Structure formats: structure tokens, C-alpha cells
Amino acid sequence: MNPNRAEQHCFPGECGFNSVGKEDFYSMLLQSGASVKHISETWVSNHYKWIVWKLACYERCYPERYLTVSNVMEELKYRYEREVNHGHRPAIKKILEGDVPPSSVLVLCISSIQTNTEAMFENISTSHGVDRSTVANVELTDGWYSVNAVLDAPLSKMLAFGKLFVGQKLKISGA
């Protein structure tokens, strides 16, 4: 399971009929009291992806069953409560909204790695001394939201030696 597959994950329905996917969780969240003006299908889809990925990872590590409809729903309700009702925001959201400087120290998880893609070359300045043939574009997540980033030369070398991988956490500072 990876975040892209997690976003498309569907739970089998009872007796094999009517599987339950991210669209259904949006409806279930609204039925449980969430406000239409505070969340959107995009909000649910984003959180659904990270919740399913997390619970699938738990199942790989522990013998219990974590990836269930009820667990996903509880996690969505928890995130709604924290983010909408209490106004708590995760690290990436604070940075993207300009309330915290990007140079802040934070721990992010590598959720995907793409090496040598044309799109990332457009974002790289040769004045920074980065060899364009050795860089990689990564998606980093705080577990709630994600951001794309380009690895610097030392991290690109670590990736080349197999020391960076999806699921690994990085302590970021001075981004």
C-alpha cells in the first residue's frame, strides 16, 4: 500500500455488494454532524488517503486488524474535531498558510520518490550548485497534508546509496 493506492482503496461491502470508498466517507462524515461549509470532498479525500496509508502500515507491523471502515471513520471524525472545531493545524498547513516560517524544524515522512523527472528540473536553479542529473523530487507528509520537495545534493546522494525510502522520516530545518 502506498498513498496513491490508499486514495483509491475501497472496503468491500456486506455480502460483496456496494463497496465503501472515499466518497462514501464524505457522506458518512456529514451524517455524523460535520458541516458542509467547513469540509469538502477534497478535504475528506486528502485525509482518507493518509489515514488508509497509516492504518495499512499498522497492519503490516502488528497482528491486529486496523484497516476497517469504523477505524477510518473514527480517524476522520478526530481530524475534523481537531482541525475544524478546535482550530489546530498540522505543521505543513501552518507553513503553507504563512503562519510559521518554512525554516522551522519539523519531522516529515517520505510518501513518494520520483527521480529525474522533467517537472522537477523546472524548479531547480543551477546557481544553487545542484547537479540536475542526480536530483529527486519527493513528496513529504506530516500525516495530514503533503508538500513536494526537491532533495539537495547530500540527500540525493543518500537516495542513490539506498539510504532514503518511502516511509522514512526526515528531520527538516531551514527549508
From TrEMBL:
GO terms for biological process: double-strand break repair via homologous recombination; regulation of DNA-templated transcription. Transmembrane segments: none annotated. Residues 90-175 form the BRCA2 OB1 domain. SUPFAM superfamilies: BRCA2 helical domain, Nucleic acid-binding proteins. Residues 19-86 form the Breast cancer type 2 susceptibility protein helical domain. This is Rhodanese domain-containing protein. It comes from Heracleum sosnowskyi.
